[in-house]
Write the structure tokens for this entry.
Amino acid sequence: MKCRKCDERAVIRIRAHNLALCREDFLDFVLDRVQKAIRTYRLLQKGERVLVALSGGKDSLAAFDILQRLGYQVEAFHIDLGIDGFSEASLEAVKAFVKERGATLHLLRVEDELGMGVVEAARRLRRPPCSLCGMIKRYLMNRFAYERGFSAVVTGHNLDDEGATLLGNLLRWQTGYLSRQAPLLPSSHPRLIKKVKPLVLLSEREVLAYCLLRPISYLPDRCPYAKGATSIPQKEALNLLELHSPGTKLRFYQGFLEARGSLPQEEGELRECEICGFLTVREKCQFCTLKERLNATEGRER
């Protein structure tokens, strides 16, 4: 199999684009796809201070690497969730990656914020860790970016991630979530930093191939609490459709983005949290409410 662009030996076939590419042309293809997403959805501008959330997994590391290669002013941000074994391995992967690139790493620990890690917080409140994790990460990323003067927070969500989320929201017809799903969540308040997803035009397989061919050393392990996540069967369903009709994921997601402007906007009026000052639709934000509930469990735990 020869490369479609240079006739060298191809290392990957991308059925969705009817392409076979050699290593160098594939790496260029990935950069082109990210540049297209940035231009099409007006995600970033050169000169912005960009904070990239790194988990240690392939997607976030690839996002940082690509943006750095494209000339964006990126700094790394990692949240230690306090998950025994997994968090230590994640942090080591992030540190090695950042050191290799001579980049700046900012680190926050959930234990320093809550007095305990995510797993212990979930145990005390009798909730699954995943139900707390996303909210905690979103709050801390936004707060840190605001306090340090960043104009954008980047996450490594890829096409498969966005497609699975879209499918789940459609199956439950959650119009509020649908109206807010986009590659760019713009800032509507000085304390709300814009959120950017530059990998949305790349499939999970393409991001994985990029990491292997670049190469980028990433943590292959999933969070031990991700088992049973609803996104897994949704990704499997989309993979089956993609197998029979290459390009389905991309058409599904891009078609939604073209139509989302007609969806009703159901987000409540934002106000400043009476405790921390960051935005919420309630009097107190979810993070401050979480801290209050955890403080109330202290006596019962003794």
